[in-house]
Structure formats: structure tokens, C-alpha cells
Design goal:
By secondary structure, this protein is of the alpha+beta class. Helices cover 48% and strands 17% of the residues. It has three domains: 54 residues; 47 residues; 59 residues, Nucleotide Exchange Factor Grpe, Chain A, domain 2 (Roll). The strands form two sheets. Strands 1-4-5 form a three-stranded antiparallel sheet. A three-stranded mixed sheet has the order 2-6-3, with no helix packed on it. Strand 4 and strand 5 form a beta hairpin.
């Protein structure tokens, strides 16, 4: 009994540096004299179609994965925006509880009420600090239009454009201005 013939692995025709099949390979493929060693055009086409299908499938999978990553990133951004204030809000709950407790007690003496309000203010300051909210109290600092809002100017001794009175404190959240400080600024005295 003769041994079964091993199937040959089909290969594409040799290509020149320009990328086009050589004339000898093209002539040999069409001549039929080397049909045992060269696959037919139909076989080459089937191989190329299979490879194209594989590449197309890989491309579709990569595209789907990219879309999934983009969608997940958008969902994460939406959640981050929606729940960004959650930690700060939970800190403020203690402040609200303290204020409600102070209002619930109707028979408080003024010293105890003041003590409770001071404690509540410390709780609020702690919540601000944990959240990166800083107070701007620029008394005696040089006027900065990016951090201060001048309401008026008054004649004063010393350097001009200096904050001489703070009417309302300003606040910044991680270096971003939330509210500028309302200030009165000095100007030089008229001689």
C-alpha cells in the first residue's frame, strides 16, 4: 500500500522589490507544468479570502473593544461628576445635625449656645479643609484682582493698593476661585 502523500502548504508567488509577482512565478502558475509544487489560483484566492476574513474579524473585535472602553470611560466620568460632592456632603451632615440640636433646645443659656455654635463652626471648617476649600482673608495684603473684588478705595497711610478692610471672606477650591474676597483698598492720601 502506498504511503499517503503529505499535503503541501500553499505559498504565495515570490514578489520583487516593487511588490508585484515575478513573471516567472506568474508564468509557472498558469502553465500547468508545475501544478504539483504551485497551488492553483483558486487555492490562492481561498487562502487570501480566509486571511482577509481573519483580519476583518480581528478588526471588528478591536473596534468593539475600543467602543466598550470609550463607553466605560464616559460612564465613569458621568459618575464622577454626579457623585463628586458625596464626601463633602457627608461631612456637612454632622454640621447640620449640630445646628438642629442647638435649635431643638429652647432653654439654653447664651454661653452654652455660643459654645455649641463655635463647635459647629469648627466642624464646618474641618469639612472645608478635608474637601480642599480654603478661606481667603487678605487683610493687609497687596490687592490681587484675581483673588479680591474691590468695593471701594479709602485714603490710608502706607502703600497704595493694599487691602485695609475685608467685608466678606473669599474661598478657593484647590486653587480655583469660588468666590473672591470683597475688600476695601487703600489709596495714597492727597497732599
Amino acid at each position: 500500500m502506498p504511503e499517503p502523500k503529505q499535503p503541501e502548504i500553499p505559498t504565495l508567488p515570490d514578489e520583487t522589490a516593487s511588490g508585484s509577482p515575478t513573471l516567472d512565478a506568474a508564468a509557472g502558475a498558469g502553465a500547468g507544468s508545475t501544478t504539483d509544487s504551485m497551488p492553483s489560483i483558486d487555492e490562492l484566492l481561498k487562502i487570501a479570502e480566509l486571511k482577509a476574513a481573519e483580519h476583518h474579524d480581528a478588526w471588528l473585535r478591536a473596534k468593539a473593544e475600543t467602543e466598550n472602553v470609550r463607553r466605560r470611560a464616559q460612564e465613569d466620568i458621568a459618575k464622577a461628576g454626579k457623585f463628586a460632592a458625596e464626601r463633602f456632603a457627608s461631612e456637612l451632615l454632622a454640621v447640620k445635625d449640630s445646628l438642629e440640636a442647638a435649635l431643638a433646645n429652647e432653654n439654653q443659656d447664651p454661653a452654652a449656645l455660643r459654645s455649641g455654635v463655635e463647635l459647629t463652626l469648627r466642624q464646618l471648617a474641618g469639612a472645608f479643609e478635608k474637601s480642599g476649600l480654603t478661606e481667603i482673608h487678605p487683610l493687609e495684603e497687596r490687592f490681587d484682582p484675581h483673588r479680591h473684588q474691590a468695593i471701594s478705595q479709602v485714603e490710608a497711610d502706607g502703600e497704595a493698593n493694599r487691602v485695609v478692610q475685608v467685608l466678606q471672606k473669599g474661598y478657593a477650591l484647590h486653587e480655583r476661585m469660588i468666590r473672591p474676597a470683597l475688600v476695601i483698598v487703600s489709596k495714597t492720601k492727597a497732599a
